[in-house]
Design a protein that fits this description.
It contains 20 helices and 15 strands. The protein is an alpha+beta fold. The protein has a domain of about 120 residues: Immunoglobulin-like, CATH 2.60.40.3620. The strands form 7 sheets. It has a 3-stranded antiparallel beta sheet. A two-stranded antiparallel sheet has the order 1-3. The two termini are about 45 Å apart.
Length: about 650
């Protein structure tokens, strides 16, 4: 059990501290007589011992303490459930953007909706502490591994260095370079680490990844959930793609180089079904081949109130059925902003779609309240409405109609006016003067009406399959942050398997968190190419985007050509493909849309309509607790 491994490591760290403090006394440089005393001599004895401690390093991204789901926490000063690495990363990367608002009033959390956090914010402290807790654990592991020469331990040392580089990348991205910097070369014990800077931290992360890449297992040759070369290459690609933000340098050619390496040498494949990437069996279903580096979760063996358990639970509320998500209930916390929903608008593809009547066949019409939004003229105007055609003149009519919004209402009329009556109904049955008919999802529909039997059928012909929004009983606008039914909910993450079965437990999710996956690398290649990377092919970039769109739409209806490529299109594609996966804040910063007034969304800047925010919110502050305890540190500008 992971619980035992957690306890094992904490005891080890205590023992190591004692061993260091007394190492100058020869009489104490012996193994303890008491078998219950744990020191580095027996913690790091065999390769299997190293493996057990390595498990804690990986679990540091998922678990919150030594017992789970609560009790004996890793980090003090914050509720243990809040302290989860993935939960904190998700909150910082998602709630501070247009991707989500949170309705809870826990102290310090509403500030993430508004861009008004301060150095005393508990959640900022939680993210910062989690990063440096992981750095501390990896440093100790690396220090011990460097004293061994077994190949298997050297491979594990490379993995620990990757995990440390990942945490330092999060420190660079979230807090800038003005953070404490410690490695295995620094002493054990209480002292005040010196801060680094953005350039030096960037260089360190880069050099570590370049140095260890060949020491890691080849892509796909390590156990699922452990880092390999593909993970290191992906992190390098992401580091280089954001270099302009971090250090003011264009490293897009390097981003493209490592994206190509992942694509060409990694052996990864896109999942056929986008939804499978975010289900309880994404460690075994066909989505596994797309995931480059996951953070693992398990309802039996790794129970936490953070991670994907938090992401799924917090998105359930209102009229939503928790059992449909494989959960025991909902926490009614997160919804998306209307501005974010609008970025899934595919009206440019389908707006005003009409079925051609080249043979002068009989027609009926589809007037409704959707017409203006969908490009058909005035709402409820039969004269402007699209027509269905009866090619066999047998009173069976078919045709395509585009509905821009879910919940759109309509009827059928036998002529381009209301003079000859109308047909409505429900559950596929028509009646004269019946109720308005409603579509549950936006998209291009193929509609069949049989007036002989007074029936109708609605079938989606094409829609953006990544637009996983729950709208029943939810308003698009968010007038009240605390009211869950204000704003669309997101159904992307589930504790349900690809075969429709719930996860092992309804209270704790099995769903793994894909930190890196192939689709992101495709988009890195495309963006680096558009930004002028040497060696990039616009045709190849367009083909990668088309692979993602064909999966999303189920056909090539939304495909692009190389001439369509620009940064706006890349931004839209990253929006649709990667939302709620903790990439958004980083992306908005790179596109210049995170702070300021160029792009505002609901509740940014503390107002319902949204307003600009100060540029100093581009990075988070160093927590006051660390500033006060380490005299070497200075606060980030503006705080």
């Amino acid at each position: 059990m992971l619980i035992n491994k957690f306890r094992f490591l904490i005891l080890a760290l205590v023992g190591l501290t004692v061993a260091f403090a007394t190492s100058c006394v020869n009489d104490l440089n012996t193994s303890p007589i008491d078998d219950n005393v744990v020191t580095s001599a027996n913690v790091y004895d065999t390769p299997d011992d190293f493996r057990q401690v390595l498990a804690k390093l990986y679990a540091g991204f998922a678990a919150t303490g030594q017992e789970g789901p609560a009790g004996n926490a890793d980090i003090q000063g914050i509720d243990e459930g809040f302290s989860s690495y993935i939960r904190q990363l998700w909150v910082h990367q998602t709630i501070t953007t247009d991707e989500a608002v949170v309705g809870w009033n826990d102290e310090g959390l509403p500030e993430f909706n508004y861009h008004t956090w301060t150095p005393s914010n508990d959640f900022v402290m939680g993210m910062y502490s989690r990063i440096f807790y992981e750095v501390t654990l990896t440093n100790e592991f690396i220090r011990e591994a460097q004293q061994r020469d077994e190949n298997i331990i050297k491979e594990m040392e490379a993995e620990a260095r990757f995990l440390r580089a990942l945490s330092y990348w999060h420190a660079l991205d979230l807090f800038g370079g003005n953070v404490p910097f410690v490695t295995e070369e620094d002493p054990i014990g209480a002292y005040m680490p010196e801060p680094t800077n953005s350039q030096d931290l960037f260089n360190y992360i880069e050099s570590e990844l370049l140095e260890i890449q060949d020491e890691l297992a080849a892509p796909g040759q390590n156990e699922y959930g452990r880092a390999d070369r593909g993970a290191a290459w992906t992190l390098l690609a992401k580091l280089y793609l954001n270099a302009e933000v971090y250090i003011g340098q264009d490293r897009n050619s390097d981003a493209l180089t490592y994206a190509e390496r992942v694509i060409n040498e990694g052996g990864y494949e896109l999942a056929d079904n986008y939804e499978h990437l975010f289900l309880a069996d994404n460690d075994t279903n066909q989505g596994t081949n797309e995931i480059i580096f996951p953070i693992r979760f398990d309802g039996d063996n790794l129970q936490t109130f953070g991670g994907t358990n938090f992401i799924i639970h917090a998105a359930i509320g209102g009229n939503m059925s928790a059992s449909a998500f494989g959960m025991d209930g909902g926490w009614a916390g997160h919804r998306v902003t209307p501005e974010f929903v609008s970025l899934f608008d595919d009206s440019d593809l389908f707006e005003g779609t009409q079925t051609e009547n080249t043979g002068g066949y009989p027609e009926i019409y589809v007037p409704g309240g959707y017409q203006a939004a969908s490009g058909y003229g005035g709402d409820w105007s039969p004269g402007d409405a699209p027509a269905l055609i009866s090619e066999n003149s047998n009173d069976v009519y078919t045709g395509l109609v585009y509905f821009a919004n879910p919940g759109s209402e309509f009827k059928f009329t036998p002529s381009p006016s209301w003079d000859d009556g109308d047909y409505g109904g429900s559950n596929g049955t028509l009646t004269n003067g019946g109720d308005n008919i409603t579509v549950s999802e936006a998209g291009l529909y193929e509609i069949t009406v049989d007036l002989n039997n007074m029936t109708y059928q609605l079938e989606i012909s094409a829609s953006e399959g990544r637009a996983m929004f729950y709208t029943d009983g939810q308003s698009l606008e968010i007038d009240e942050l605390g009211e869950f039914t204000n704003g669309y909910a997101v159904t992307k993450w589930k504790n349900i398997t690809s075969t429709g079965q719930p996860g092992k437990r309804l209270e704790f999710a099995d769903t793994d968190f894909p930190m890196f996956r192939l689709a992101d690398v495709y988009l890195i290649y495309a963006e680096a190419t558009v930004r002028g990377a040497s060696g990039g092919s616009s045709t190849t970039a367009a083909n990668y985007i088309n692979e993602l769109r064909e999966r999303a739409y189920g056909s090539d209806i939304a495909n692009i050509t190389s001439s369509d490529l620009d940064l706006d299109l890349i931004f839209q594609e990253r929006t649709r493909e990667l939302y709620w996966e903790a990439h958004r804040r980083t992306d908005l910063r790179r596109f210049g849309l995170y702070t300021g007034s160029d792009y505002v969304w609901s509740w940014k800047g503390s107002s319902q309509e949204g307003s600009g925010t100060s540029n100093h919110y581009e990075i988070f502050p160093i927590p006051s607790s660390d500033i006060n305890s380490n005299l070497n540190l200075t606060q980030n500008p503006g705080y």
